[in-house]
Design goal:
The complex is a heterodimer. By secondary structure, chain A is mainly beta. Helix content of chain A is 0%, strand content 51%. In chain A, strands 2, 4, 5, 6, 9, 10 and 11 form a seven-stranded mixed β-sheet that branches. Chain A has a four-stranded antiparallel β-sheet with strand order 1-3-8-7, with no helix packed on it. By secondary structure, chain B is mainly β. In chain B, strands 2, 4, 5, 9, 10 and 11 form a six-stranded mixed β-sheet that branches. Chain B has a five-stranded antiparallel β-sheet with strand order 1-3-8-7-6, with no helix packed on it. Classes of the chains: A mainly beta, B mainly beta.
Chain lengths: 114, 114
Amino acid sequence: DAMVIQNPRYQVTQFGKPVTLSCSQTLNHNVMYWYQQKSSQAPKLLFHYYDKDFNNEADTPDNFQSRRPNTSFCFLDIRSPGLGDAAMYLCATSTRQGRYNEQFFGPGTRLTVL
Amino acid sequence: KNQVEQSPQSLIILEGKNCTLQCNYTVSPFSNLRWYKQDTGRGPVSLTIMTFSENTKSNGRYTATLDADTKQSSLHITASQLSDSASYICVVSAYDTNAGKSTFGDGTTLTVKP
């Protein structure tokens, strides 16, 4: 089945130690998103790619970076994780050609910062 | 500023009962409204998606309604099951040439008890 895959599902890192989260998709969608979701809050958009075109949200900290080497993969790099970066990170995809621009979400990666 | 407000914040019902969740929005220009179900520790899963011209849409025991004039939507769950316990998120997208401009509500946490 076509889907959005996130690895790992759970990630533990130390304060200040760089960490990379990965997302892959078999939907062949041209838009990929990264969201941060803290407990009992709505997902917060960090950035998205429209093909290779990177779009950063104005309030996304510089600590967060992203790479999209090809259509299928997208990475979230947290350069120096702080305690406040502990959260669920959600990857989503959509197709710009679609009438509804519906987003399909992966299962998420739960990040713990020690 | 685009906003999505959901009510109630949380809801507890007995198995087999019906319930209705509300979503009010101020997103403009309106493109579509989506309801997602998010199980604890998982990514959101799409339930329904509606555009301006659609008043109601069903997905099994889930029925969503949309009143574009009053900018209100509801999600009705019929004959609730224990597996319906989750967070239900209303997401509204503005028509924009830049893919990805969606506004998320904070969600309604539904607990179904036996």
